[in-house]
Amino acid sequence: MGTIYARLVLDNDDPTVGLVNIGEEPGKGNELVKQAHERMREAEDLHFAGNVEGGDLLFYAADILICDGFVGNVLLKFGESMTTVLSEMTGKEMTEQGLDADERTLVTGVLSEVKKHFDPESQGGAPLLGVNGNVLIGHGRSSPAVIKKMIHAAADLASVDVVEAIEEAFRADAA
Q1: Contacts of 79 (CB under 8 A, 6+ apart)
Q2: How confident is the model at residue 77 (pLDDT cuts 50, 70, 90)?
Q3: pTM for this one?
Q4: What is the mean pLDDT of the chain?
Q5: Whole-angstrom Cα distance, residue 34 to residue 25?
Q6: CA 26 remoteness from chain centre
Q7: Engineering a disulfide at 136: which of 25, 46, 125, 140 sits with its beta carbon 3.0 to 4.6 angstroms away?
Q8: Domain ranges in the chain?
């Protein structure tokens, strides 16, 4: 489903797919993850990159990361916390090091650019694939700007008919 979404919406013709796991080796993880690894490795229409460890998640180890909902939610909340954590840690460190106003401005500018990668406001919502419709999930505290982005993203999903493409892929696999 993620591959279809990446192809149709993100214009990525050959997205890589990684399985979030506790190690790179195929034999690592719980039984569910081991089975998922085996099935993904055998899938002919999937560009499977293998297991992706937590330390590699932020280094674009794969275009699509697969994990269960619990792990995914923990990772999502952790990533979103990075903007606050980076700001607080950097502010404290700049004070401890006695940076002057110009140095603080330089560091703050760099940090602002880095924070954009973790800011849920910059991304909007995420598609909920596998349901019979175009659904995007966002925070209950999403700003009007994010809601607007989600509406446009839903229109994009509908215009390329992601739902039908996913259904078609499942029908082809069942045949």
Answers
A1: 118
A2: confident
A3: 0.82
A4: 90
A5: 10
A6: 22
A7: 125
A8: 1-67, 70-118, 123-175
